[in-house]
Amino acid sequence: MAAGNGSGSGGSSSPPCASCKLLRRRCTQECVFAPYFPPEDPHKFAIVHKVFGASNVSKMLQELPAQQRADAVSSLVYEANARVRDPVYGCVGAISYLQQQVSQLQVQLALAKAEILCVQMQQDDGHHGHSTHQQQVLSSLGSGGSTAMMLQEACLKKESLWA
Hints:
It comes from Eleusine coracana subsp. coracana. This protein has about 160 residues and is mostly helical. Helix content is about 65%, strand content about 0%.
């Protein structure tokens, strides 16, 4: 059964898709919106229409192969929701926020790894090669100069980086 399409020959017809209902037009078998904007979810099309316009969305969908349209609609809905939440940056704002979180978590992970190595170095108290081992630890932290300095200070003071 075709979702949201009415038949043109007077037989029983299903309700129009969300786009045709919002745009107040007859939903046909060829409606490009019907498979992706069901009548049960009118908000989905309304937000996409508000941000991109029905004509633009129709052109985009018609230019895509049928197997890519569902993914395109999903992306359009996501971007439209992001634009409503953040009209200036849209998805880019969300991506930037997530990248900042990843960076912060990477620093926390590096500090945790450094603290583990620092504790291991302290347990090796009677063995030689501390400075070589410490240099290996510092180089494993990458280019984070402040992280390396924190580790060095913590190891010298023999205290936790998290205290």
